[in-house]
Amino acid sequence: MKTRSKFAALCVALLFITAACGSGGKPSANSGSSAGTPVVIGVVGSFTGAAASASGVFQPAINAWAKSVNDAGGIHGSQVNLIVKDVGSTGGPAGLTAVKELIGQDHVVAVISADVSQETWLPYASAHNVPVIVGGVGDSAGPGRFQTSASEIAAGYEIAREAKTAGPSFGFGFCVEVPDCGSLADVLKAFAKDLGGVQVGFVAQLSAAQPDFTAFCQQLKNSGVASYYIADANAVISRVIDDCAAQGVRAVPLLAGANGTASWVTDPAYEGALVNDFDAPYFDTANPAIKVYRDAMAKYAPDISAAVGSDTFPLLAWVAGQAIVTAASKVDGPITSASLTKALYTFRDETLGGLSVPLTFDESHPSISTCTFEWTISHGQRVVLNGGKARCAPETALAPFLPKAG
């Protein structure tokens, strides 16, 4: 089994902060689904509490996915029955209790996770041979775990790579409110060294309590860095970018698509910003798979249209659901935990029709994708880069920060 690295755990915490402020074991309790019998899928997530402003949209988005699938005839002629468990932002025992109920009482064929504390119950699902589709953020690999979004560690590599395209050095500002937040600097420095031709020019602390960020902006100007990345709350990031633009800073902001807001395309301070993303750019309706997603969200989840149009989180839910649909299409016979798991392990550079980073699930060597997508903001428009294709980081560079076997 693989466990989450300290860096990956920190990334999970930061991502929510930026938005908010089968092998072995027991046989599965699920007997599966035949034609006409509902395909029962569990969903466990942090939909309320501190994480709600980030992951709260996951629940209506996954419900929209299920409605779309059912209106199209279901899976193998069977309707999808979602059983959603909200464990709040603390997770822990609540998540384990929820998963025990889903597996032992509800007999789900799979669990979709958007739980920030999923590591507390993933071993239980694995022991009962129920596949877990990791649809939220997090770096998790191990028996029966199938992460369908980009790796957060790979996103860190993409930050350094984007910085290199902007110029020879970049600045890094980090929150003082989260323990070890500054340790991201060492990760970015390692990736910059691996890339060559770029370096972290300076590192500075930031606090949400600061009345302004003049000192940081002046440091950007005096250091001559070409770009900068802020690991902090969205509200802080916005204030920094606006303050620095007002002071004549020309360094390019480096951003994460999951932290998107509508202001990115209306505020001139974001002009030229480079963005890394966990799945295919959510705004790119020239991508047929994204157009299907956007049309379905508009029909089945209009209440979250603002989030659908400005950030990645609703798409994470849709991609997780489509991973199940794609796996089920490879199954002959009843949809069971075992048949879905077997089908998921056939994925080789699978993009779910153009929705996701290339997904390869290897039972003998559990892994996560090292690829991310990239886009920019130009003249008030989101613009896809790299021809809409994912860019992949070398595994050798990521290895020191990936979850270790244990």
Biggest sheet, in brief?
8 strands, mixed
Overall CATH architecture of the largest domain = 3-Layer(aba) Sandwich
CATH topology of the largest domain: Rossmann fold
End-to-end gap: 6 Å
What's the CATH class of the largest domain, please? Alpha Beta
Cα shape: globular
Please summarize what this structure is.
The protein has 406 residues and is of the alpha/beta class. The protein has helices at residues 6-20, 52-55, 58-71, 93-104, 122-127, 152-166, 184-195, 214-223, 234-246, 288-300, 305-308, 313-328, 337-344, 395-398, and strands spanning 39-45, 80-86, 110-114, 132-134, 145-147, 169-175, 199-206, 227-231, 252-256, 274-277, 371-378, 381-384, 391-392.
Please tell me about this protein's structure.
The structure is a single chain. The protein is α/β, with parallel strands linked by helices and 406 residues long. The chain folds into two domains: 6-150 and 283-369, Response regulator (Rossmann fold, 3-Layer(aba) Sandwich); 153-277 and 393-401, Response regulator (Rossmann fold), CATH 3.40.50.2300. Helix content is 36%, strand content 17%. Strands 6, 7, 8, 9, 10, 11, 12 and 13 form an eight-stranded mixed β-sheet that branches. Helix 12 crosses helix 13 (337-344). The protein is globular and about 65 Å long. Residues 1-10 and 16-31 have low confidence and may be disordered.
